[in-house]
Amino acid sequence: MARPDPAITPDIVAAHGIKPDEYERFVALLGRTPSWTELGIVSAMWNEHCSYKSSRLHLRGLPTEAPWVIQGPGENAGVIDIGDGLACVFKMESHNHPSFIEPYQGAATGVGGILRDVFTMGARPVACLDVLRFGSPSHPKTRHLVAGVVAGIGGYGNSFGVPTVGGGIAFDASYDGNILVNAMAVGIARTDGIFYSKATGVGRPIVYLGSKTGRDGIGGAAMASAAFDDDALAKRPTVQVGDPFAEKLLLEACLELMATGAVIAIQDMGAAGLTSSAVEMGAKGDLGIELDLDAVPCREPGMTAYEMMLSESQERMLMVLDPAKQAEAEAVFRKWELDFAVIGRTTDTKRFVIRHGGAVKADLPIREMGDQAPLYDRPHVEGPKRPVIAPSDVPAPMRDGAALLHLMGTPDLASKRWAWQQYDHLIGGNTVMGPGAGDAAVVRVEDGPKGLALTADVTARYCAADPREGGRQAVAEAWRNLSAVGALPLALTDNLNFGNPEKPEAMGELVGCIRGIGDAAAALDFPIVSGNVSLYNETGGRGILPTPTIGGVGLVDDVSRVARSAFTAEGLAVLLVGETRGWLGQSLYLRDVCGRAEGAPPPVDLQAERRHGDLVRSLVRAGRVAAVHDLSDGGLAVGLAEMTLGHGIGVRLDTLALERLGALGGLPSHAALFGEDQGRYLVACSEAEADAILEMAGDVPVDRIGTTGGASLILPGEPAIQVDEIRRVRDEWMPRFMAGGLAQAAE
After folding, report:
1. What one-character DSSP code corresponds to residue 201?
2. Is residue 144 among the annotated active site residues?
3. What residue ranges define each of the domains in the chain, with the CATH number in brackets?
4. Which of the residues 95, 380, 425, 612 is marked catalytic?
């Protein structure tokens, strides 16, 4: 006997994350009290995770178009033309709340979800990247969360068979109660084989594909749209459970089915599961959708309409098929031993109708559930401007060499090899440059010679100090990472992780970062083609640092000529591209050496970024340089140290070069060495090339600063630092921390 639906009460409405005024709007739209299933549907479709109701207004101002953009925001993933009839399909999404509650499955299903977004478009995934942010290493939960998340990413990606080639890990106390797991997936498709989610045609079958539906993940989208409280761990049942082997079968079956011409529209069942996939397909096509839930394959008995509509069980797809090819489509899925069930049809009613057990459980206007969800212009305030810190106002607490070794062993700069060694970054055989080899990962496109350069990162402390400048810097950093390996930057995806948008200060951070991202994307012809917004990242009223993660994709003409970041030989000239002013505000030196988290972040000159990147890229593509490394966290000294580690080749920084950088002309040596001025690169090349580059640089500042050789890094006036000592300090932190032996040192 079916259980009766609960009565709709104010407490029930609030528990669904629906505000009183939103509920009143919904009732007025229906002209009646909603059913239990209808309440669940609207809670899913109108929550922040699905509707972007707090951010949509501001996202509209981002540049999203370019001649090479095939599909911008609004689909499962963005699509860009990379020539020769091929397209790159990519997107980034978050799985923050689930990963805090259940780190292994939260991270694993985050990877699974973003992979489905890519192959739903008809692309075969070729790479993943993951940007992870954890709380203070001294927090008692951090080690557990790091272990679970890294294992989940490796467990799913390795089993599915896609290389994890890049990303990053950083720590900050603001993430103590709300970690970030941002997953990016990249795929390759033919430009004439892109599939979309817009349903077309009346009376066409709607088909459920993949794994069976269970009760895991019910309410997951709503949970992702709310701040954590002290009962966060009680939400463990809302975390989905993934099966990478089922996803691999689903990938192969979908790509085979797409080749038959049977697919009219396709949507993966991600957040809000069957509800969001069906509503989005119908709303985009201006059609109605009727579903009969009696036909939905379930793995648990007695599931209600509410449970089936809100389940976020993984590895599932929804398709609209050509009825003439239904039998052929079913044969494909049966061959792959996956469920195939006709569960509904398209209509011309523009209604979303759900039947179960012979009864109508929901009858809703479909557009209002989809693209006409509430839209808010929330109050936002700009935070106070941080003061500019003059280099002379930062006394050095230790010698420059000691400061460098100290920084190399801090949590943010220490090697993350412990994590990425758990990821298969070579599977598929097309990884040209994986983790740690260069400023961006590079994967070969089919048989080459072309490749894709991929990067994902963000400097959250800059965004907290000045959201607009931080947003600009995040895009500029992606531009530099791609340019440093010789790639032409083409397009961006983003994952905007912020606190509670109902707080004007947090909303101000979101608005400021979006504007900064837009500034840089427009100036650099670097459009945003996909992305995700994750809000309410706070616990107990404390929000995270504003963290707008930026993922960039660039095109490499010839993968045999990409630039790695390690010095490759002795006797190379080392050139510094860009201007050094010794900017220490918000730098790692100021924070981790001086103990001062202060000041304005370094400003970004977007026109200079473009000129400098264009020069460096041209040198790499012409085969004129042996190594390139962009300068970011830790500045010049850290950049030089990192370049010594690949092959153990040392470098001597010339005293006269340091003088020219201003060290003896009013700029302290520690400011010249550790300042985080933007738009800079280190380039290693032959002596002959160095002279030629200095001659042809034009309006791009280029200075010769040193020579490679020996097994030490030598800074002017400092004792030589052995490369092996730099490597030891950098490599030991993470394994010791994960073994439980470094909690006190990590504070």
Report:
1. S
2. no
3. 1-59+196-372 (3.90.650.10), 65-194+429-559 (3.30.1330.10), 387-423+563-739 (3.90.650.10)
4. 95
